[in-house]
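Troubleshooting: if your tokenizer reports a length mismatch, compare against these two reference records.
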Amino acid sequence: MHGRLLWEPLPMTETTLRSPVLVLTCNRVGHFKNLVQSLGKCVGASETEIYIAIDGPYDPSVKQANDEILRHSESLTGFSNVHILGRSTNVGPNTNLRLAVDEIFRDHDTLILLEDDNIVAMNFLLYMNATLSTFGHNPRCFSVCGYNLPVARPQRCSTDIYCSPLVNAWGIGLFRDRYYRTDLEARKRLSTFFLNPLNLAKVHSLSPPFFSLFVYMFMSQQEFADAIFTAHTLRHGMFNIYPVDTKVMNTGLDGSGIHCANDSRFFLHDEFCNAEKASFALDIDEKVSEHFISHNAQYVRTAFSHKLRRSIYSYLLYVLCLLVGRDTTVRLRNSAKSGLRKLGIRSDSA
């Protein structure tokens, strides 16, 4: 092993855990069918319950697509059980998520969350269940992530996982006890955590765009699960498990998603690697984790071309929000942007 182990692992995984899978969907028929097809090919699919949370149509023009998703869901086979959680009206992705999670966590201690634009590797369920089982008793582990950026593994890598304080929700395993400790209403209030310059420097080194995204979420009163979960793990010194070889691909970077632009240049993988693996080495090696954290940060920095001035601007908004509140800060920002436009000066858009 290289580096200090943060958790005493099983040498190779043996688990009987069968976490239920939650799929969030609305009107993307093609994406949804591709996801459930890949999920049905997973080892362990026939022993897995699947919950499909279908949000109501947000517009009459997508009702036909929603109806087709419902019909396809009712015809699904190959899983131990299929539960359809249909919404009579459009409640939005965040409420759809919360309602479904609350229902599943009434009977289960873990769940695996997927969005309808995900595609999973054949050993996705094996990896997720083995890792959730191994780290289920470690309160410092917040989640198990299924996606990893297309970054090459280090030359010496005897483990199939690494840990990071960042959260990516493109296929994520959640623990009931830890999920309910997060501040799911973070968009309504701000923590003073980032007033500490050491904390701000740490998050900037991990993911340069994160802090700006977090402030944007608060200013716009939107809700990004990745940002909320990441802020939680940073504040509480927790970590998240990632696969060395990604187990999830995202096909929603085609403009069809709510938060994803029509730009798939940076997050595409050519194929799933080592998808035939049936067991995994689940030891956390600090050097392997450091390798991926460092290379992922550089990858994201290049993808988003994040500028230091953007972080400074976001920090000023953050401090103003803490001092005078969000509404006043929004008014001050809008007035300042209007004045700059009149002078022909372009401003940041948070």
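Reference record two:
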Amino acid sequence: MIYMMTDISTHIDFGFGVTASSYLESAEKLEGIEGSSFRGNEMPIMFLYRHSVELYLKSMIIIVHKKLKLSYKDESIKHDSENPYVFDFVKSEWRKITACHDIFTLYKYLINVVGEYQSLLEKIAPKGNWNISNIENEKYIEIIKKYDFDSTYFRYPVTKQIHLDHQKSSIIKSDE
């Protein structure tokens, strides 16, 4: 990974990929600490994993746009813009990629772009596996969407998903 040895301003994806790798590595290290002495350590670890997924998706979207020279926002934003966008198929609107924290939206957008340009991607990178739309990926995206669609579930004690917040605690409420 040569890009990890250069300043992020030189990265094709503005550093999203290397930053995602940092979050992933941190999660793996924390998860690997045996005999952790603090309660509730699952929440920060899950946040790190979830955030790495978000950043990897953003990285891939930016790289595909740049490599294929695909403009954003109905051709009004050039492929090499420092302000990339994603299309939210649920809201039917374009959103700045830095303002979108919804993994479902990011994933669906990536799937759409890769699906539309798969034959071209296969020519450019024939060793790549461009079959990213599959049941296993969909299953994990749906789980993340259920619990943490907007990147708040693992960051805050109370979220918009109040009916799920009680599941975060390792202490179970008892009627006794």
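Descriptive notes for reference record two:
- The chain has a mean pLDDT of 87.
- Residues 42-68 form the longest helix (27 residues).
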